[in-house]
Amino acid sequence: MFETELTRTLNIRYPIFQAPMAGGPTTPDLVAAVSNAGALGNLGAGYLTPEQLRSTIHKIRELTDKPFGVNLFVPEQPEDSEEAVLQMMDHLSKYHVRYGIAQTPPSFESQEHFEEQVQVLREEKVPVFSFTFGIPAQEVIQAMKQQGTVVIGTATTVEEARQLDMAGVNAIVAQGYEAGGHRGTFLNNVSGSLIGTMALVPQIVDHVSVPVIASGGIMDGRGLLASLALGAGAVQMGTAFLASPESGAHEAYKQKLLSSNEDSTEITCAYSGKAARGIRTKFMNDMGQYSGTIPAYPVQNTLTREIRQAAAKANDPEYMSLWAGQGLRLVSEQSAETIVKQTIEQAISIHKSF
Ligand SMILES: Cc1cc2nc3c(=O)[nH]c(=O)nc-3n(C[C@H](O)[C@H](O)[C@H](O)COP(=O)(O)O)c2cc1C
């Protein structure tokens, strides 16, 4: 049931992707559990060093022989003035004091190792390579495809999807406004690229030649069936898996996910300098006063890293980033396998009822 061109290409049973979620949630346990359940587990590897990336891929392979994906961030060159960075460091100093963190100047040496990460993915011949925040060079896309890796890009508008299609990707994630985590927007500004999943998916489907994966606010079989009806070849679900036992999300974050509602999230640049949807926190509210002067990603991400880590250590979710989509009331603590199974069973039962 629900076999699509994409499930055949990827050799998976169900048209469900567990979203790659960088920063810890997508543990090898989660990725493997989802793949073993017949869907596609995806590792969010944007922040991993090449060594961490290789060893994590090995761990996933110890836990599953099914296909899985690895997701990277296409790097960007921020252009913030030194003055803006120093000013932000000054604004953030109160949080350093709060957690007793030493005020050492952060190192901005390349935190991203995109080329080396790509090299690892090529050597490891991962089944699926997905990316967000832009389009990698042609050599990267072609080299991956030539070795048999399925290449998937992320779009938040039809024009972005068209450019990905022209660049030769095998499939496109259509990331709607509801989605948790960072916006993949790379052409126009984010505020002009906030299209709801219901509107975005069929319009992208109509304008590209490759399968589309619907993403943003999809939490169960209802969302899966609706997405297939809109023309998607699969769905990508992030928030739905965040509170599962296999997810590496912090315990305080999981509790927040389970107690939050559809109106609990906001899109903010406060944590990383790039627009992302997360559960509203004191940190987001405090930083509202500096909006417009927040250094771009990845600079702000580096500037807030120690604060987020200290908050996590102190079990203080108000200063952690709590990325989540708008489907929050539907979050469950079920195992990853159960989430996949229930999603499919619900979609089948609704389909039968028509
Ligand atoms: C905690 C979290 C981290 C995320 N990290 C990534 C990432 O590393 N790469 C990526 O392409 N998308 C990332 N996303 C976005 C997802 O791919 C997807 O668009 C989103 O989860 C879909 O919306 P949903 O959370 O409502 O299911 C992240 C989402 C969340 C919630």
From TrEMBL:
SUPFAM superfamilies: Inosine monophosphate dehydrogenase (IMPDH). The keyword Flavoprotein applies. GO terms for biological process: response to toxic substance. Pfam families: NMO (PF03060). InterPro entries: Aldolase_TIM, NMO. It comes from Paenibacillus agri. Nitronate monooxygenase that uses molecular oxygen to catalyze the oxidative denitrification of alkyl nitronates. Acts on propionate 3-nitronate (P3N), the presumed physiological substrate. Probably functions in the detoxification of P3N, a metabolic poison produced by plants and fungi as a defense mechanism. One of its GO terms (molecular function) is nitronate monooxygenase activity. PANTHER family: NITRONATE MONOOXYGENASE-RELATED. It comes from the Bacteria. Keywords: Detoxification, Flavoprotein, FMN, Monooxygenase, Nucleotide-binding, Oxidoreductase. Its cofactor is FMN. Belongs to the nitronate monooxygenase family. NMO class I subfamily. It catalyses: 3 propionate 3-nitronate + 3 O2 + H2O = 3 3-oxopropanoate + 2 nitrate + nitrite + H2O2 + 3 H(+). The keyword Cell membrane does not apply. This is Probable nitronate monooxygenase.
